[in-house]
């Protein structure tokens, strides 16, 4: 039954009424309804409840691959790579676009205009960072706020940053959520890809059954990494399995092709054409959704601090740093703090300069800390690089400009009153007749003391918005692994094209037989327990009840017991039913269309499924 429900609805929400109307072959709506309680208990179905109490049911995202496996998808023929022309190679990846954006926000902050949008100058800088382009994603026709201000690639990156909880949104601007950022950068690239792909499946694919089937079919294991596959052949096989109609709309086909293009931009798929101009694709890197399978109870695992800065970098005598692809994002985060980034690719290139080290010092990374990190995480630091860092360390930090809080009084009486408060000794320092210096660490204490004598200053205009700061991440404080992001908060993102299950309250109610078949207690038990000859008026009530429940009836015709799914009743006193007649309960064909009157059968009974 779950296969039929999946074929009919994919992972989209449906009402029980929709399920009742989805009979096939000898399987009637009542048969499908009767399966709902057990499917809910097993987790193969889930339900949500709208505010006004209406319930919707759906197949959870992590169950879909299991159902596809049961359906045994048609094996796809691998294409000869020598007959393929590559048109679009997979880019570096969405994970890297997100990383570069986070690093930029850490360095520069992200203040907003009075309209709530990012300043134009910052937008320009952020757009320049991204590998993802408009051509990659425009075909997805995404909807999001301020569409006139944000190009689609940046909107996607910001959407992911928000939905994963990596930033704190404040009225004047956005700041990094250090706790979530530490957990995110502690993931491997494979784990990041799994989380990101799951978000895309849940929110970016439209609520269209053929499209939903298509996006999930692509991720099945039979489509191997590195092998070319023909898109038209894949769609034909899906039609033969009953997953999509024989003729798709041009809009559906266009979106499917755009999805492949977007997956290329996100760093996962190559696209090309064959000699006969057919679209082909191959997985370059395939996200492993089992890493974020929320159906499995996976406990959060702590990552050892020693493994947080994974990978080895290569420090060159010319002060360039070669960064292989296996270097962890936590280590890359540190490199972004004190190096110039020259290129980001399979092998990334950074450069140490005096200026970059000075900027690193402003971010809390002293030349000594930088040298220690390079010695720990590299194949070795050349002597000239080590000596330069030591020299820069001696030159930097010998003088310091500190920011202090100035408390200014409008008259001498207020200043003298403040000077006399013993609780402020050591917290403020008088530097003139009307002026005091307030210790940065004790601003709250000073405010509280001044409030008590009714001399509290107004709040500072920048209060409530953290200053731009490139945080030092402490892996030992919070590393939850990929499970920290298995239930990313979709409500925090701003792109939504797909199913809306996350907007509603989860519902754990298991409907009983009476709830599925209302009025069951009011019918005579003999209608169900035995077949017999009924008066025409009673027979009509039985047939009407079967139609209401989308149930079957048993008929004795010519000495043979047959099943019928009644679909309608015509006539008054002399009435007849129209429906489908079956000679075999296991026959999944459509049955024989018939019109029968009470004179056509000898006995009648109502058939209800077992639960």
From TrEMBL:
Highest taxon of the lineage: Bacteria
Keywords carried by this UniProt record: ATP-binding, Helicase, Hydrolase, Nucleotide-binding
Domain Helicase XPB/Ssl2 N-terminal: 314-419
Gene Ontology terms, MF aspect: helicase activity
Keyword Hydrolase: yes
InterPro entries: XPB/Ssl2_N
Statement: the UniProt record of this protein carries the keyword ATP-binding: yes
Protein name: Helicase conserved C-terminal domain-containing protein
């Amino acid at each position: 039954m779950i296969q039929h429900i999946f074929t009919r609805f994919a992972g989209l929400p449906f009402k029980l009424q929709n399920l009742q109307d989805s009979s096939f072959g000898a399987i009637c709506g009542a048969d499908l309804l009767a399966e709902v309680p057990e499917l809910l208990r097993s987790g193969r179905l889930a339900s949500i409840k709208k505010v006004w109490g209406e319930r919707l049911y759906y197949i959870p995202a992590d169950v879909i691959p299991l159902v596809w496996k049961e359906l045994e998808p048609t094996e796809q023929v691998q294409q000869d790579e020598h007959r393929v022309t590559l048109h679009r190679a997979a880019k570096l990846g969405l994970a890297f676009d997100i990383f570069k954006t986070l690093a930029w926000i850490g360095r520069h902050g992200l203040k907003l205009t009075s309209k709530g949008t990012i300043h134009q100058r910052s937008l320009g800088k952020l757009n320049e960072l991204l590998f993802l382009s408009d051509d990659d994603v425009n075909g997805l026709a995404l909807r999001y706020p301020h569409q006139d201000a944000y190009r689609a690639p940046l909107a996607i990156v910001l959407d992911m940053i928000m939905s994963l909880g990596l930033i704190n949104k404040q009225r004047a601007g956005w700041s990094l959520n250090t706790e979530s950022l530490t957990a995110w950068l502690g993931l491997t690239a494979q784990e990041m890809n799994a989380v990101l792909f799951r978000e895309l499946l849940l929110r970016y694919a439209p609520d269209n059954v053929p499209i939903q089937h298509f996006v999930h079919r692509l991720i099945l294991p039979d489509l191997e990494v590195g092998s070319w596959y023909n898109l038209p052949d894949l769609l034909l096989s899906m039609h033969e399995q009953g997953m999509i109609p024989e003729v798709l709309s041009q809009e559906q086909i266009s979106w499917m092709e755009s999805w492949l293009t977007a997956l290329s931009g996100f760093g996962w798929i190559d696209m090309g054409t064959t000699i006969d101009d057919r679209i082909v694709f191959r997985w370059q890197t395939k996200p492993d959704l089992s890493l974020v399978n929320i159906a499995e109870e996976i406990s959060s695992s702590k990552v050892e601090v020693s493994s947080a800065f994974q990978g080895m970098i290569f420090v060159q005598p010319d002060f360039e740093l070669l960064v292989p692809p296996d270097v962890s994002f936590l280590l890359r985060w540190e490199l972004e703090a004190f190096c110039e980034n020259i290129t980001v690719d399979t092998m990334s290139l950074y450069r140490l300069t005096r200026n970059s080290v000075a900027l690193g010092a402003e971010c809390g990374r002293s030349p000594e800390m930088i040298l220690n990190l390079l010695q720990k995480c590299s194949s070795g630091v050349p002597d000239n690089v080590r000596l330069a860092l030591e020299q820069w360390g001696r030159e930097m930090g010998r003088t310091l400009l500190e920011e202090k809080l100035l408390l200014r009084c409008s008259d001498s009486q207020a200043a003298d009153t403040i000077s006399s408060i013993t609780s402020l000794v050591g917290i403020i320092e008088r530097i003139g007749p009307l002026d005091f210096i307030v210790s940065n660490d004790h601003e709250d204490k000073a405010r509280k003391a001044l409030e008590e004598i009714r001399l509290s200053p107004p709040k500072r205009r920048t209060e409530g918005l953290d200053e731009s700061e490139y945080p030092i991440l402490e892996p030992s404080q919070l590393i939850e692994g990929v499970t920290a992001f298995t239930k990313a908060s979709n409500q925090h993102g701003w792109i939504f094209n797909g199913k809306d299950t996350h907007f509603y309250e989860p519902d754990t109610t298991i409907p009983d037989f009476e709830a599925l078949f209302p009025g069951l207690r009011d019918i005579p038990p003999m209608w169900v327990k035995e077949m017999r000859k009924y008066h025409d008026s009673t027979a009509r009530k039985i047939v009407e009840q079967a139609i209401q429940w989308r149930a079957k009836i048993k008929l004795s015709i010519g000495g043979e017991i047959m099943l019928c799914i009644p679909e309608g009743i015509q006539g008054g006193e002399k009435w007849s039913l129209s429906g489908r007649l079956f000679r075999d309960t296991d026959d999944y064909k459509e049955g024989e269309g018939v019109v029968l009157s009470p004179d056509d059968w000898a006995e009648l009974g109502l058939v209800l499924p077992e639960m």
